[in-house]
Amino acid sequence: MATYIFGHTNPDSDSIVGAISLAYLKNQIGEECIATRQGEISPETEFILEKFGMTAPELKTSYAGEKVYLVDFSDLAQAPHDIKEATILGIVDHHKLGDITTDTPLECWIRPIGCSNTVIKEMYDYHKVAIPKDIAGMMMCAILSDTVIFKSPTCTKADTKAVKELAEICGIEDYKALAMEMFIAKSAVEGASARNLNTRDYKAFDMNGTRVGVGQLEMVDISVLESRIPELFADMQLMKEEDGLHTIIILLTDIMKEGSQLLCLSDDASKVESAFGIKLQENQAWLDGVLSRKKQVIPFLQPQF
Amino acid sequence: MATYIFGHTNPDSDSIVGAISLAYLKNQIGEECIATRQGEISPETEFILEKFGMTAPELKTSYAGEKVYLVDFSDLAQAPHDIKEATILGIVDHHKLGDITTDTPLECWIRPIGCSNTVIKEMYDYHKVAIPKDIAGMMMCAILSDTVIFKSPTCTKADTKAVKELAEICGIEDYKALAMEMFIAKSAVEGASARNLNTRDYKAFDMNGTRVGVGQLEMVDISVLESRIPELFADMQLMKEEDGLHTIIILLTDIMKEGSQLLCLSDDASKVESAFGIKLQENQAWLDGVLSRKKQVIPFLQPQF
Questions:
Q1: Which of B102, B126, B298 sits opposite A97 (nearest CB)?
Q2: Do residues B91 and B110 lie in contact, with contact meaning Cβ atoms separated by under 8 Å?
């Protein structure tokens, strides 16, 4: 029986590429594994898959009775609805430790670094398995995406080292140019619905019993979204109601200006204000230097609940 | 400011040795760390410390405001009372994933293998740090203890390989003879109170909201305990009341006969009976082949709650 490997709901490039790269590694070391995904492919991931001639993993949202590896998350809120009926063989991640628990011993490769694919690169090295060119290229892109081309405070030496080694394997010298192309693909908003924009990289968190949603839209220039902000707020209100959220935050992250416009609807906005030491104006604030949801947003928000 | 490294409450040899061996490694790679312990040293651990001329880590039970690494556990029930006020930098473990969560990214080295010290051996290799002779000897003993000299079903190739490499480093050829000496030291029960016996290797688990305690006493010959069983039950009754347990189990594990005598007091003993497919007689049953609490007891017990 095969084992499934997948990332979080609403997958980003790290989740999709991580499922593919980890499944390849596991198959090479004799564990039959299939990469899957819990949700739709983002424009950025589409760009990466196309660039390296790969197809998206199969969509699969139910895993009862299956054996699984999780990539890029350890929170129940980002897991399939029936994860408790699955056997979790392992977790590869680079986030805070979430509320997923298991009944049996497992394999966890979790590191406080920029990207799950950097951890997977380490696993390839550990198992002495060669990385195919196309997979190396995708892993490189996933790391460049998660670290915002090394600008994010989450970026570590391990990430830059992995990118350099992967660039050599896939034979792409000017990986920063490729990354800019990728971020431009990611920034495409024309024709996208407000819901699509709000949920492109959206995660729900259980913060000590309170449900908080935080989405992030990384753009090379967020000013193109200015006229659409009322529309984004209207949809955030719907998302808040549909999902029973106490607080919903959308971060419009400008990777060139290196900061984020925070949009927020909350049952108690003072919690958000004291988390970041800001005063909201029309439910908004500019967070200078904030590029990382994981390192610069969640750790400040969580203690408020 | 230093960081503390410690194992679970009521520490076994893996917890004590793991704190020492991980602290040494971390200090070598430039992270100032201090090994500590949450509880008393067992006779087995005393034997190991004495054999290699080491002293026990300092006793410390409160960690609010401190940075910590956890060794050999990820369950809140086995953590210091104020763990939520500490910053967990990492977890090194070989058990099922427990209910500890963090607010910030961390380092987890968790493997489905026989011993945390085997994982730590892997970390030394990863960081290319040489293991001092005395620490290598203690790590070897911890692995031989946790794997019951390779007899436990939890034992993997990684564990036997680590023992062989550590034996070479510490220069002890006949490590099985040393392990038998260690188990004989561990089997010393003369003069020990019932509470001491019940809690030598005792862990409390939160099983879907129900509190269950499982202790294990590994002996080279459990028949020496026969006359003390009524006394053990009387103390189990007290422990059950003191700690608000639904179920308390003590396993008297005979490492030569390769099985365990299960002693049990429960608000619903049928759960224990169906977990193991047994019929209790006078609250007891012989579990043939059962040596591992982690692999042969907890995974069967947990789904009953």
A1: B102
A2: yes
- Predicted pLDDT at B1: 74
Residues B14/B44, Cβ–Cβ less than 8 Å: no
Q: Domain locations in chain A?
A: 3-184, 194-304
Rounded CA gap, A86 and A60, in Å?
Answer: 13
The partner residue sitting opposite A94, judged by closest CB among B105, B109, B110, is B105
Please give the DSSP secondary-structure letter assigned to residue B245.
-
CB atoms < 10 A from the CB of B230, how many? 10
Nearest chain A residue (CA) to B75: A101
Q: What is the mean pLDDT of chain A?
A: 96
* pTM for this entry: 0.89
Q: Which pLDDT tens digit goes with each residue over A257-269? A: 999 999 999 999 9
**Overall size of chain A counted in residues:** 305
- β-strands B3-6, B67-71 pairing: parallel
Give alpha helix (H) positions in A114-201.
116-127, 133-146, 157-170, 175-186, 194-199
Tell me if A193 sits within 8 A of A228, measured CB to CB.
no
The Cα A261–Cα A289 span in angstroms is: 11
- The DSSP code for B281 is B
Domain at B194-304, CATH from 3.10.310.20, 1.20.1420.30, 3.30.450.20, 2.40.30.10: 3.10.310.20
How many Cβ atoms sit within 10 Å of the Cβ of residue A284? 15
Report d(CA B152, CA B155) in Å as an integer: 6
Pick the CATH number of A3-184 from 3.90.1640.10, 3.20.20.105, 3.40.50.1390, 3.40.1640.10: 3.90.1640.10
* Residue A267 CB burial class (10 angstroms; 0-12, 13-18, ≥19): exposed
- A187: its two tokens: 């920034």
- Dist CA A67 CA A38 (whole Å): 15
* Contact between A103 and B298 using a beta-carbon 8 Å cutoff: yes
Closest Cα in chain A, distance from residue B137 (Å): 25
Distance between CA atoms of B235 and B211, rounded to whole angstroms? 17
Residue with the two structure tokens 């690494």: B69
Interface A:B, Cβ pairs < 8 A:
87
| pLDDT tens profile B14-26 | 999 999 999 999 9
Instruction: Give pairs for B164-170: CB < 8 Å, separation 24+.
Output: B165/B121, B166/B121, B166/B131, B166/B136, B166/B137, B166/B139, B166/B140, B167/B140, B169/B131, B169/B133, B169/B136, B170/B52, B170/B133, B170/B134, B170/B136, B170/B137, B170/B140
